TrEMBL record:
Recorded superkingdom: Eukaryota
Family per similarity comment: Belongs to the ATPase protein 8 family.
Subcellular location as annotated: Mitochondrion membrane
Entry keyword annotation includes Mitochondrion: yes
Lineage: Eukaryota, Metazoa, Chordata, Craniata, Vertebrata
Gene that encodes the chain: ATP8
A single cellular component GO annotation: proton-transporting ATP synthase complex
Protein name (database record): ATP synthase complex subunit 8
Keywords linked to the UniProt accession: ATP synthesis, CF(0), Hydrogen ion transport, Ion transport, Membrane, Mitochondrion, Signal, Transmembrane, Transmembrane helix, Transport
Protein's UniProt keywords contain Protein biosynthesis: no
Classification via Pfam families: ATP-synt_8 (PF00895)
Membrane topology value: Single-pass membrane protein
Length: 55
């Protein structure tokens, strides 16, 4: 069964991962995010409960 033979696909998988790790990933990580994270307010507001008409 040719599906179980890893020989033709292992080199392709290995090449793809090495390309990603060595070429693509450093380029993607070099980009800086345009929106810096903002500290969220720690103030919690109480949400009023819903008044159900049948209760």
């Amino acid at each position: 069964m040719p599906q179980l033979n890893p020989s033709p696909w292992f080199f392709t998988m290995l090449t793809t991962w090495l390309t990603f790790l060595l070429l693509i990933q450093p380029k993607l990580l070099s980009f800086t995010s345009t929106n810096s994270p903002i500290n969220k307010s720690l103030k919690h507001t109480k949400i009023p409960s819903w008044t159900w008409p049948w209760t």
